[in-house]
Amino acid sequence: MAPSLLTRRQVLVKGVVGMAGLMAAHDARTAAPAAASAAAAVTTVAAAAGTLTLGGDLTVNRLGFGAMRITGPGIWGEPKDPAEARTVLRRAVELGVNFIDTADAYGPRVSEELIAEALHPYPPALVIATKGGLTRPGASQWIADGRPEHLREACEASLRRLRVERIDLYQFHAVDPYVVLEYSIEALAQLQHAGKIRHIGVSNFNTLELARARRIAPIVSVQNRYNLTDRRSDEVLGVCARDGLAFIPWAPIAGGSADRLESRASHAVEEAARVHGVSVLQVAIAWLLAKSPAMLPIPGTSSVAHLEQNVAAASIKLSAAELAAIG
Questions:
Q1: pLDDT tens digits along 173-198
Q2: What is the mean pLDDT of the chain?
Q3: Residue 207 in contact with residue 233, Cβ under 8 Å?
Q4: In sequence order, what are the beta bridge partners of 225?
């Protein structure tokens, strides 16, 4: 996920509310045989969404995990219970999630550190994507910084925190209007040439900015806000689908509750949820998956129970009539 566009002279205050009620961790390696069998049965739940290949060489299940909400209130500082946050991360991998999205600004630093603590050494198929280009003066505050020197320093720091020699997908978090876009992308291209980055992605980009970035370096993904209510990035999604780029929607679930979604198609969503016996939030994820094969949703949470519900949405297949009704 990513916040809206900011500059070093503008600070966006954005409230976020995490999910509560973490469940106990399940470790199949030490559980009783019956429990281990149950764990094995859900290991590939995320695979029901199908797969997507990033940059021609990184194939991931098309239902990922966004690691923004495992930090403290306002995406600031440590979570109330770091051990439980690590449980969420481990459970995501158990469920077949092999794409985890984070950023140096989440915490800041906290999300990346928790990922390394929970999952390093990483399973061979796990892709950790992170981002640089936003700084944090305080809780719920985000400021763009696209200076090449900042991006180089941010990338090196993420490498250390994640305990890797190369970041599989490094994303430019937001355009800084006080820095020429090409200078920012060129800095990432240099890091890629140096072997610090495998693939480059961008976030909060419009189609013109994406075209400019692609003239400087190969871009394999775009991460923009997109959900049932907010479809302003439809044109960017179309470019991604046409050209084989991944589209990673942040804030993939529009506001609302498990029973009612704040959406222009709320009645159709609620009816689909009733027919499938699931929550409207799960239908929202299923809708994203059905919207385009380029879509790689990353619903995030700090709750194991909510995580399991999100991943279960990978198995929901909406009918053509339901998709038409939702729009």
A1: 999 999 999 999 999 999 999 999 99
A2: 87
A3: no
A4: 250
Helix (H, G, I), strand (E, B) or coil at 266: helix
Residues 63 and 109: their CA atoms lie apart, in Å, by 24
Distances (CA, A) of 260 to 92, 274, 275: 26, 11, 15
Topology (CATH level 3) of domain 12-20+47-250: TIM Barrel (3.20.20)
Token pair listed for 26: 């399940």
pLDDT at 39 over 60: no
* Contacts of residue 140, Cβ cutoff 8 Å, sequence gap at least 6: 13, 14, 15, 16, 74, 75, 76
Q: Which two tokens stand for residue 28?
A: 């199949």
What's the one-letter identity of residue 241? A
pLDDT per residue as tens digits for the range 288-297:
999 999 999 9
Is residue 258 within 8 Å of 281, Cβ to Cβ?
A: yes
User: Quick check: is 106 catalytic?
Assistant: yes
* Catalytic residue, candidates 106, 122, 170, 226: 106
* pLDDT confidence bin for 246, thresholds 50/70/90: very high
Domain ranges (residues) in the chain: 12-20+47-250
* Residue located via tokens 């495992």: 70
Indicate the SS3 state at residue 130.
Answer: strand
Residue 253 pLDDT grade (very low, low, confident, very high; cuts 50, 70, 90): confident
